[in-house]
Amino acid sequence: MNPPRILFIDAYDSFSNNIVSLLATNLDAKVDILPIDPPELSPENPNFTAELTGLLRCYDAVVCGPGPGSPDLPQDVGLMKHIWDLRPDHLVPVLGICLGFQSLVVSCGGVVKKLKTGLHGMIREIDYAIQEPSLEGGNIFAGVSPFKATLYHSLHADIGQELVAADDWATSKWASPAHLPDIVPLAWVYENRDGTTERILMGVRHRTKPFWGLQYHPESICTEPLGHQVIKNWFKEALRWNRERGRIIESTATPTKSITRLPKSSEHKTHKSLNWLERKLSNCSSWALGSSKLASWGLGDRYTSRSLELPMYIEAPDIVEILQGDRSNFIILDSASAKANRIGADVRGRYSIIGLDVDETLKLEYRAGDKHVTVRYSLPETSVSGEISEKCYLHPQQTIWQFLAEFWSKRKLAAEDHSGPFLGGFMGYTTYELGLESIDVKSHEGRGHNRPDLCFAWVTKSIVIDHTEGTMRIQSLSPSESRGEVWADFVINKLTSSPIWTDGLQADFDKRAQSSELTPPTTPKSALTKTRMQVPDADEYESKVRKCQDFIASGDSYELCLTDQTHITRPRSPPAADSSAPLAPQEAGKPPQTSWQLYRTLRSRQPAPFGSYIRLGGATLVSSSPERFVEFRRDGLCSMRPMKGTVRKSAEVGTLAQAEAILHVPKEEAENLMIVDLVRHDLHGVCGVGRVDVPKLNVVEEYASVFQMISVVEGRLPAPPPPPSEQDDSSSANANESKSASANTITGLDVLAASLPPGSMTGAPKKRSCEILHDVEGRRERSLYSGVVGYMDVTGQGDWSVTIRSLFRWDDEITTRRTTGQERDLEVWHIGAGGAVTALSTAEGERDEMFTKLKGPLGVFDDEV
Question: Which of 194, 255, 376, 691 is 20 to 30 A distant from 27 in Cα terms?
């Protein structure tokens, strides 16, 4: 027997996939997803009504989901309005949630107004009708145990509830208002504000039609599971209504062909594998035809490694200085907090990863909006000198992520028994603007530069430091094991023969005492050497906070992660100064710290588990990020770690208990909860229904200079399709089957692509919030800030962090200053900072949080101003 089918109408909300999972797992139903405004099903089409009713005949029930905006705006509700207006002979059971609920009330003659204060992320007890007061059936709350539910709304349905006298409320609250006879109230929430009680409608049903509505969010992680019985009761009522009227559910072959392909099935997953175009594109991608070096780069490489005990006084920057001092490109993912005993064990970080010989690696660059990928490489073992650049054009239907997935799949290695996090593969960064492209938010027009929004190096030589075991692994991907072993022996010899290695702690002490790795001496200030800072204006930032709150109050967003940038203009360092070679102490009048020194300074002042130093694609990034974005393991487990809620360490707040008392308040917990539910939506979209859990919710952790509230959301990728049987191994059919299995395999790249930009840097719903923030922030690019940094190796394991608590610059952002007849090139560094604005925020509090987060990375310039 086929499972029942539900059509979910998606209003571009960032919690939609959570509702789909709730429906599928609790109702044993197959759920298809349809946006509110599919171009193939436009009301402008003369056959619209026939096509819509033909589509609905294929479903047992419909759910109209939540979303940003107002039920009074046709563009915000789309198809919902037409579903409520169906003729009696075309009716189908429908449940409206949040925006869907409000649109149902409006369709019955009710109105929607603003709450006194929004209730986004608030958890409240639901007051509901235990027995149906005036109908023989239809109360979906019947028999439900008391429960609390999560609210996400700033608009509410007004059916005249405030006009009912307090003495009459107990009996009148379940009665249909005289002016709205079709609305039967089923549930309420009460909000005490300034000595008065605000009555907020939470549940309704239509008196004569099979329509129900819920204002609260049943899918939220903080809605108690007891409340899921309401969803089960609704579906029982829906199926009963179908049976009593002899409603026959038609097969998907009955409606017109253009409609049957519209909904997106969520039976297994709601995301299509990035490899789905592989078979179609493999015969037309220019690089796959062999016209590019890209086609053969790294094919057939084998993994080799050597292990070496790491002296306790050697750190990642020391290794880079020994091996890579004269290089210009660097990728260092640095768990600088690994030895910081004053912070919690869970946040120290275990591994540091160093990409070696990055100058010689293959690099892939992509700019949002382009139709090509720029490929850069060098051929050090040939007579060809310098870097070679090629353009590989994307197929019209191909995205940058599908391009990367195809490249990776051809070089994939079996995991075998490798326990390390990284064997070689992609390392690099993406910008915030790349994430905007993935959710169809326009930001790349008229940018005035050609900087990459994605730059990945295919790293074949690397070192992984295991801080827990005190070891390091020198590893390579090379055409033969012998070649890799020779290289590893060379590296080990160079390391173990270096003075810091052979002379031990004394050499380390002398090196640090004599070099400029620590905070350098103050440089004399002159018109040419003075570093200038432009920090955000406090009043302007407060004004932006209030503007965000206006959007929240209007129902356009639940939470907006507002940011601003500080600009540091300073004398430009010569290119050689950006190498990792140790420098002699500074002389008076010399330029201030190099980027490598800035990295050394930041990691010593603010050690973090996801620090990094990257020079790649014309960018220099110095980061001390504490926030993991997403980790995906070889066994398919994915973990995201959203971070919201920050308090700086001080004399008043010095212990974890003191920080917990400050952060475990409704405002901070609501901020974190909203992003948790958003991240669950992102993971459900790739992992599929019922495959996402939250093992940690609103946990406060201790870092070097701050306390942070974090949550952990985990999902498990679907298992790859089974390989074809060995019996038909030689047949062409088997070869095609094998390609099909590969094309349907979900990987960590799918997770990364589906989750950008990071929800902790956007707010929710993600798409509408990003559009609002783009305008509020003055259409200025965030660039590397709010992007991600990390890796995905040849076995499919990856780890990415959110680029916060960081500073960056671009090589092409050079200005010239003329003073006293001289000219000097100046470089510009950027530091982003901000916070999540909610209905409970204060402009002053958000301003203080932004400057608190800015203080850490900005402090590396203290001796220059």
Answer: 255
Residue with tokens 């487990």: 637
Domain check: are 292 and 207 in the same one? Answer: no
Q: What's the CA gap between 797 and 803, in Å, rounded?
A: 20
Give the pLDDT band of residue 138 (cuts 50, 70, 90).
confident
Write the secondary structure of 150-198 as one string of H (helix), E (strand) and C (coil).
EECCCEEEECCHHHCCHHHHHHHCCCCCCCCCCEEEEEEEEEEECCEEE
Q: Enumerate the H helices of 651-730 as residue ranges.
A: 656-663, 666-687
Q: For residue 385, with 0-12 CB atoms within 10 Å meaning exposed, 13-18 middle and 19 or more buried, which class applies? A: exposed
Q: Are 369 and 377 in contact (CB under 8 A)?
A: no
**Residue 590 lies inside a defined structural domain of this protein:** no
In a domain, 279, yes or no: no
The answer, as to whether pTM is greater than 0.70, is yes
687, 715 contact by CB (below 8 A): yes
pLDDT at 163 over 60: yes
The CATH number of the domain holding residue 119 is 3.40.50.880
Structure tokens of 782? 């965030």
Task: Dump strand ranges (E) for 405-556.
Answer: 425-430, 454-459, 461-466, 471-478, 532-534
pLDDT tens by residue, 700-738: 998 877 889 999 999 999 987 776 654 445 444 444 444
CB atoms within 10 A of CB 324: 21
For residue 498, give every residue at least 6 positions away whose Cβ sits within 8 Å of its Cβ, in sequence order, or none: 322
Residues 244 and 302 in one domain: no
Range of the domain at 145: 5-265
Strands (E), 432-575: 454-459, 461-466, 471-478, 532-534, 559-571
Q: How far is Cα of residue 167 from the mean position of the Cα atoms in its chain?
A: 49
The reply to whether 513 and 660 lie within a common domain is yes
DSSP string, 734-794: HHHHHHHHHHT---HHHHHHHHPSPGGGTEESHHHHHHHHHHHTTT---TTTTSEEEEEET
Same domain (yes/no): 257, 315: no
The rounded Cα 239 to chain-centroid distance in angstroms is: 38
Q: How far is CA 422 from CA 329, 378, 466, 563, 632, in A?
A: 19, 23, 11, 33, 12
